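seq:
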Amino acid sequence: MDRKHSYVYGSAAPNIAQRAEQPLEQQRIERKQTTPPVPKKSNIPKAKLVFALLFVASVCFVILYRFCVITELNSRMGALNEQYNRLRDENRMLNVEIETSIDLNRIKEIAETKLNMHTPERYQMVLVSVPKSNYSVVLDYDYIDNTTQKSSLMEKIINTTKAILP
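struct:
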């Protein structure tokens, strides 16, 4: 009976050729001679594994160092902004003090005593024609500060639409 092209009708299984029976002692010896399964060696050598771990650790260290530097620069920038605001306020106060402390009589006295200046004679005067338009410029520091603030594009768009719409 050819096994490739044969079909067995019914539930009987074909007989398989029996192997020659060996004594139980030889079968036990064969079992004892087999070695336990050895785990397969890793495909990745240890050097590559150590290098990969060092590379990952160094990348993590670089990222952490970068965030530390950014935090330090932000704190330094905050301190400098605070110092700038303080100096700007002091400068404004000094400008106001200078403008209010100008006294023409005192200036005349200092010019005559310390600088040895005197009023010009009639022949030393030169007449200059000045146009009649008279105007004064008033600086609004709050407006200047608000317009020069650095803001994001979205904030500028929102502020523009607020200014346009009532």
